[in-house]
Specification:
The chain is an all-alpha fold and about 100 residues long. About 90% of the residues lie in helices and about 0% in strands. The longest helix has about 55 residues.
Length: about 100
Amino acid sequence: MNSNNEKKSKTSAARPEAKSQAPEEVVVESAQDVISQFLSKGKSNAAKYIDIIDEMMDDYLEYNWAESTLLDIYDFIKKEGYITEKQIEAVENIRQSHL
């Protein structure tokens, strides 16, 4: 009879561990959702900033001092298919500099 009691205590001790693992899986899925949302936002901004950079490069006299930065960002967007928040900040800072 002792062996049955031992088996029950071992089984009940294992159950709390299994319950604690489930929330970790949910956290991993949530992190993936956040990453997906971040990348989607960058992709949706990519086309917009390709157009903005094109317009800026058309106005060469205003932005020639920033040509290499703008072209680097433009090439990155074309190659990778998205734009980062820091690249957006850089483009916006350059745009604001001539106003």
